[in-house]
Design a protein that fits this description.
seven-stranded parallel sheet, disordered C terminus, oxidoreductase
């Protein structure tokens, strides 16, 4: 199905940009939402049917104005893709409390603001799709990502609750990718932050975008890649063992980083 009106938050970022290009290729009218007007305008010129709409999803008043503008101009929204968000690496005691709050605002409450603002209009029409870009970190705790995990756990719970409350009129899909090769890593290798079995499975944004579009037509909770999906299943079946194994992998990574940080001349005269 094409020709839908689709809104994508965080549209100018790695995953968002890939989603936008694929939506345009399908013939959808795509509304590009983000905070950086210049980046949005550049992207809008790249895709047919794309329109830049500046909005900070953490600001409820801006979201309300955006929704009013969309409904006034187009009369409806068929699909909402909540992609905006960010993450901070660091130990639980190292990350500033301001970043804990910031990640919750962007990753969770931003999606809540957008969803709750558009839901009444979708319900009035009797149909609508919401796709939330979460993370595998929303399904299991991860060392050095406590605040990020908490925000994605919240997004998962909110998404499941919406699905239970409003299906079949409103269908909610959630994509939970493993590490993605985006500016999230700030130019560093994923192996700096994740044990080798996880870092080797880092996904390109194009793959994540393709799976996100599939969730529009078949909404559900989906973990990618498949190998990490199986790991999450094992975690549900054997939680205590999974926590021990995860702890061991990250402790090994920590020791490797500590060893590499020691000068080869240390201890020599």
């Amino acid at each position: 199905m094409s020709g839908r009106i689709v809104l994508v938050t965080g549209a100018a970022g790695g995953i968002g940009r890939e989603i936008v290009h694929r939506l345009a290729a399908r013939g959808d009218r795509t509304l590009l939402v983000g905070r950086n007007e210049a980046s949005l305008q550049t992207l809008a010129r790249e895709v047919p049917g794309g329109e830049a709409m500046v909005c900070d999803v953490t600001k409820r008043n801006q979201v309300e104005r955006l929704v009013e503008d969309v409904i006034t101009r187009y009369g409806r929204l068929d699909v909402l893709i909540n992609n905006a968000g960010y993450g901070c690496f660091g130990g639980a005691l190292e990350v500033p409390i301001e970043d804990y709050a910031g990640m919750m605002e962007a990753n969770y409450l931003g999606a809540v603001h957008m969803s709750l603002a558009f839901l009444p209009h979708m319900l009035q029409r009797g149909a609508g799709r919401i796709v939330n870009i979460a993370s595998i970190a929303g399904l299991t705790g991860v060392p050095n990502l406590a605040g990020y995990c908490a925000s994605k756990f919240a997004l998962l719970g909110f998404s499941e609750s919406l699905q239970m409350e409003f299906a079949p009129r409103i269908q909610v899909g959630v994509l939970c990718p493993g590490p993605v090769d985006t500016p999230f890593f700030r130019g560093a290798s994923p192996s700096r932050y994740f044990p080798a079995p996880i870092a080797r499975r880092t996904l390109p944004p194009s793959v994540v975008a393709e799976h996100a579009l599939r969730l529009i037509d078949r909404p559900r909770i989906k973990v990618i890649p498949r190998t990490l999906d199986m790991a999450i299943r094992l975690r549900r079946w054997f939680p205590r063992m999974a926590i021990r194994v995860t702890g061991y992998l990250y402790d090994t990574l920590r020791k490797q980083k500590s060893a590499s940080a020691v000068s080869p001349l240390a201890g020599k005269e």
